Amino acid sequence: MAQASRTKEEQRLSTRRALVAEARRLFAARGYSAVSLAEIVRGALVTKGALYHQFESKADLFRAVVERVQEEVGARVAASAEAVDHPLGRLVAGCEAFLLAGRDPEVQQIMLIDAPAVLGWNEWRAMDERHSARHLTEALTHLVEAGVIAEQPIEPLVRLLSGAMNEAALWLARSSDPGDLRATVSALTSMVESLRRS
After folding, report:
1. Is the pLDDT of residue 109 over 90?
2. What are the φ and ψ backbone dihedral angles of 22, each rounded to 5 degrees?
3. Which segments constitute the HTH tetR-type domain (predicted)?
4. Cα gap 100→111, rounded to integer Å
5. How many angstroms separate the CA atoms of 154 and 136, rounded?
């Protein structure tokens, strides 16, 4: 009996993974509004009933795709930050990794272009909060505790830096000039350096 239920659970997870992967591929290539549920189930090799067993709607499936992309971007940011020894350099490296992730066409389309429009600004911001802002809060808290930046309330600083990063990522997503990324990283480095305790 336990074996049968484990197999059922594995099958459920396998179906969910297939749907999320196919939806992600199609949403990234053509955008949310140009993709139908029929295409997704056909590409995932499942039935529409299987899709509705996993997700309430196309928007619900898209939400799962965005969540996955956000998690991956958060992991990239954390890995880049952890690869740097200097505390302030870790913050810059993490922010730069976020901006670089935003240059990825898949991340651009799903996370920066479609997510705010499909899910609404408040839900998109809440998801960003769970993934990106958490890393930023940890980094800034560590910098204050280590005395690298002046003691100050972390919450407003996180909001200011997070807002700047999201705005820069959205702007870079629309830019075709590679120089814009270099200029943005340079401006970001200056901004972060200005937080250093004198």
Report:
1. yes
2. -70, -40
3. 13-73
4. 13
5. 10
Least confident of 5-9, 50-54, 57-61, 81-85: 5-9
Query: What CA–CA distance (Å, rounded) separates 148 from 142?
Result: 9
Following DSSP, what letter does each residue of 173-192 receive, concatenated?
A: HH---HHHHHHHHHHHHHHH
Determine the Cα–Cα distance for residues 99 and 3; give it in Å rounded to an integer: 45
Task: Determine which helix (DSSP H) or strand (DSSP E) holds 41, and give its type and residue range.
Answer: helix 37-44
AA letter at 32: Y
Query: Are the beta carbons of 98 and 169 closer than 8 angstroms?
Result: yes
pLDDT of residue 8: 82
Give the per-residue pLDDT at 47.
92
Annotate 141-169 with three-state secondary structure.
Answer: HHHHHCCCECCCCHHHHHHHHHHHHHHHH
- Measured distance between the N- and C-terminal CA atoms of the chain, rounded to whole angstroms: 66
Structure tokens at 86: 């200097």
Which of helix, strand or coil describes residue 196? strand
- Going by pLDDT thresholds of 50, 70 and 90, the confidence category of residue 55 is very high
Nearest to 109 by CA among 74, 62, 75, 159: 62
How many residues belong to the chain?
198
Q: What's the rounded Cα separation, in Å, for the pair 151 and 197? A: 9
